[in-house]
């Protein structure tokens, strides 16, 4: 338990940050999951949009400090690689 006013404030700030980070992480996970599911389907336009949205979400999370930049970059790279493989398979 916080004993000083400043410690109480830091605790409140940490709780706000934790809630915001959790929400962003959930959004990222859902976007990536949606992109992966669309890549397995045959609809190329839909999967391209989903990958684009997931990439945007990952980049935004990295820029806000929720995800480490290299983690976001790695995930974006893997999504792009999967998208390219899916597009090549469709042809």
Automatic annotation (TrEMBL):
<dbReference type="InterPro" id="IPR036510">
    <property type="entry name" value="Ribosomal_bS20_sf"/>
</dbReference>
<dbReference type="GO" id="GO:0005829">
    <property type="term" value="C:cytosol"/>
</dbReference>
<keyword id="KW-0699">rRNA-binding</keyword>
<protein>
    <recommendedName>
        <fullName>Small ribosomal subunit protein bS20</fullName>
    </recommendedName>
</protein>
<keyword id="KW-0687">Ribonucleoprotein</keyword>
<feature type="region of interest" description="Disordered">
    <location>
        <begin position="59"/>
        <end position="91"/>
    </location>
</feature>
<dbReference type="InterPro" id="IPR002583">
    <property type="entry name" value="Ribosomal_bS20"/>
</dbReference>
<keyword id="KW-0694">RNA-binding</keyword>
<feature type="region of interest" description="Disordered">
    <location>
        <begin position="1"/>
        <end position="26"/>
    </location>
</feature>
<dbReference type="GO" id="GO:0015935">
    <property type="term" value="C:small ribosomal subunit"/>
</dbReference>
<dbReference type="GO" id="GO:0070181">
    <property type="term" value="F:small ribosomal subunit rRNA binding"/>
</dbReference>
<dbReference type="GO" id="GO:0006412">
    <property type="term" value="P:translation"/>
</dbReference>
<keyword id="KW-0689">Ribosomal protein</keyword>
<comment type="function">
    <text>Binds directly to 16S ribosomal RNA.</text>
</comment>
<feature type="compositionally biased region" description="Basic and acidic residues">
    <location>
        <begin position="1"/>
        <end position="11"/>
    </location>
</feature>
<dbReference type="GO" id="GO:0003735">
    <property type="term" value="F:structural constituent of ribosome"/>
</dbReference>
<feature type="compositionally biased region" description="Low complexity">
    <location>
        <begin position="79"/>
        <end position="91"/>
    </location>
</feature>
<comment type="similarity">
    <text>Belongs to the bacterial ribosomal protein bS20 family.</text>
</comment>
<dbReference type="Pfam" id="PF01649">
    <property type="entry name" value="Ribosomal_S20p"/>
</dbReference>
């Amino acid at each position: 338990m916080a004993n000083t006013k400043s410690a109480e404030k830091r605790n409140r700030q940490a709780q706000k940050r934790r809630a915001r980070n959790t929400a962003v992480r959930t959004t990222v996970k859902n976007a990536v999951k949606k992109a992966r599911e669309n890549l397995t389907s045959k609809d190329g336009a839909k999967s391209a949009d989903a990958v684009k949205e997931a990439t945007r979400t990952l980049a935004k999370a990295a820029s806000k400090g929720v995800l480490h930049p290299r983690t976001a970059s790695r995930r974006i790279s893997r999504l792009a690689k999967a998208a390219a493989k899916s597009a090549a398979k469709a042809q």
